[in-house]
Amino acid sequence: MSPVQTPPPSLKISTVPRDARAEHPVGIEVEHLNFYYGEKRALEDISLRIQSHLVTAFIGPSGCGKSTFLRTLNRMNDIIAGSRAEGKVLIEGRDVYAPGTDVVALRRRVGMVFQKSNPFPKSIFENVAYGLRINGLAGSRSELHARVEESLQSAAIWDEVKDRLHDSALALSGGQQQRLCIARALAIRPEILLMDEPASALDPIATQRIEELIYQLKAQYTIVIVTHNMQQAARVSDHTAFFWLGRLVEYGPTDRIFTNPAEKLTEDYVTGRFG
Amino acid sequence: MALPFVKGRSDELIFRGGTGVFAVVLIALVAAIGVELYRQSLLSIREFGWQFWLTDTWDPVAGQFGARPFIWGTLYSSILALIIATPIALGIAIYISELAPVRLRRPLVFLTELLAAIPSIVYGLWGIFVLVPIVRQFEIATPEWLKGVPLFTGPPLGVGMLAAALILSIMVIPFTSSVAREVLKAVPQAQREGAYALGATPWEAIRMALFYARTGIIGAVMLGFGRALGETMAVTMVIGNNPQITWSLYAPQYTMSAVLANEFAEAAGDLYLHALVEMGLVLFVITLIINVISRSFIWSMARQKQSRLVKTAAIKAAA
Ligand SMILES: Nc1ncnc2c1ncn2[C@@H]1O[C@H](COP(=O)(O)OP(=O)(O)OP(=O)(O)O)[C@@H](O)[C@H]1O
Ligand SMILES: [Mg+2]
């Protein structure tokens, strides 16, 4: 392992070029976000704008705060005792950390898929129906069935499970479980989908299926994906943000980050010279 | 390199062998107790057969032994205790593991463990001096219209089924709640997060955790039931020790363990002794079965979690 360099004294936060912004409205706007686990600061003064209907990838070495940052976007970190966020996260112009925010409604709009698939110990059908039920989103049985099927189809798993909807979800393979979790997240029709290393535990074929899926979902959802896999980031994302030690080092169109990064640190990372 | 390898292996062998021997000794011990109880109750088994369990007369002088009222008392008091204790114990477990602020958790856990550590006889004394008078006041205050209900008939004595069920539930609560708390702790945080991410409220996320933990929770409840069945001292002191089969909560009744405790020392005659031991044998078998079932529920929970961990570790290692 080569020694890790200290960051240049003044980190310039690059923003996305204007043309891209004109085409795609800003979906999430983060302003001066700091995040603390107790005394420990895990995120330092992060500001960036995530465009809607694009795929934004977060990359960076392990422990740099990618997951923490992703989880601040739907306030999933709220449930960690002793944690605290400072700054603003604006979704459609409204600060999700403002007092009086309905966190339950926020999480319904900002869906999440976790690094380790976490299906509930229920049937495949019930896994997808759960979000619809608790949010009262399906008026009738037939509507419920229709939306479960639609979600499973969007997550490209319908054909594999349509004959065993009432079998336990735990009997599915790892890749199928992850796609089921994606279906579960899609069922409540979020506007933004956060994915934390959704393919990290999967084989190349299952990974490819998830990547194809992300490509298809892009038309309807704003997707933010954390990944350790450089090729994956390059393949699926439009914009890439590189994090290092709790800071955002560089952010821009994916092809520029990978071919012509502005920061030495980014270049070292994407060329695999450290981490 | 060979030497430490061999040494490590022999250490392992000693460790495995040692724990294996302990396990075998324990099983042998349990079996030996069962066999001994059976041998010591042969006279009664031969004399009465199934009638022992189906008749109500307990008359040592006449040599008549029917255990039905004692079985009734044991089951009735334990089931009542289960009904009272389960919601409270689960509520405490849920509060401590899911809702309480972190700095309150330790003191609360400590408190419940403390309750579990109080000797049975102390509960019994507290029952006689505090609980029974309160129960009596409550019984005296029974409104007329309730007195027609079979549950509330009989004179207000204080001692009786109600006092026994209450004291049993107080004794079972810390036990059930600490097992349930451990079970809830074994629920992966990812399950709760999965629910939250779909727009669940905290209560819905807790329900999901409870659902995940359901076998373990059932195990915890059954373990409490097993304890209630075998609990002796405190019950003996407040139940009134009168063998009768009645639904009345106010009536003094009797349990299997209470009659053993009261009569064993002064039992004259082999048949009398054997009849008491037969009761002990059945209590032993019932509690053993309940314990085995409930622990296997709890273990299956723990294994489920472990195998997930092992699986993800294996996937990580392979990658
Ligand atoms: N629940 C927590 N309590 C305390 N510290 C935490 C917690 N979760 C994460 N951290 C710390 O915050 C920092 C950022 O962690 P985070 O999980 O966001 O990193 P990451 O970039 O997602 O890493 P990885 O690529 O390994 O998933 C790490 O130093 C980590 O130790
Ligand atoms: Mg992470």
What does this structure look like?
The complex is a heterodimer of chains A (275) and B (319). By secondary structure, chain A is of the alpha/beta class. Chain A has helices at residues 18-23, 66-73, 103-109, 124-134, 141-154, 158-161, 174-187, 204-217, 230-236, 254-259, 264-270, and strands at residues 26-37, 40-51, 55-59, 83-91, 94-95, 110-113, 192-196, 222-226, 239-244, 247-253. Helix content of chain A is 36%, strand content 24%. Chain A has a 6-stranded mixed beta sheet, with helices on both faces. A 4-stranded antiparallel beta sheet of chain A has the order 2-1-4-5, covered by helices on one side. The longest helix of chain A has 14 residues, at 141-154. Chain B is mainly alpha-helical and 319 residues long. Chain B has a single domain (41-308), classed as MetI-like fold (Orthogonal Bundle), CATH 1.10.3720.10. In chain B, strand 1 and strand 2 (64-65) form a beta hairpin. In chain B, helix 2 packs across helix 14 and helix 11 (214-230) runs antiparallel to helix 14 (270-318). The longest helix of chain B is centred in the last third of the chain and has 49 residues, at 270-318. Chain B is globular and about 70 Å long. At the A-B interface, helix 3, helix 4 and helix 7 of A face helix 9, helix 10 and helix 14 of B. Adenosine-5'-triphosphate binds next to strand 2 and helix 2 of chain A.
Mind describing the biggest β-sheet of chain A? 6 strands, mixed
Structural class designation of chain B:
mainly alpha
Quaternary class:
heterodimer
First-residue to last-residue Cα separation of chain A: 7 Å
List the secondary-structure elements of chain A in sequence, H or E. Answer: HEEEHEEHEHHHHEHEHEEHH
Largest interface: pair, residues per side: A-B, 29 and 23 residues
Highest CATH level, the class of chain B: Mainly Alpha
Q: How much helix is in the residues of chain A?
A: 25-40%
Biggest sheet: strand arrangement of chain A: 6-7-8-3-9-10
Task: Determine the number of helices of chain A (DSSP H or I, runs of at least 4 residues).
Answer: 11
N→C terminal distance of chain B: 28 Å
Counting structural domains of chain B, the number is: 1
What is the beta-strand fraction of chain A?
A: 15-25%
Report the uncertain regions of chain B.
Answer: 1-5, 313-319
Mean pLDDT rating of chain A: 87
CATH topology of chain B: MetI-like fold
CATH architecture of chain B: Orthogonal Bundle
Largest sheet, strands/sense/barrel of chain B: 2 strands, antiparallel
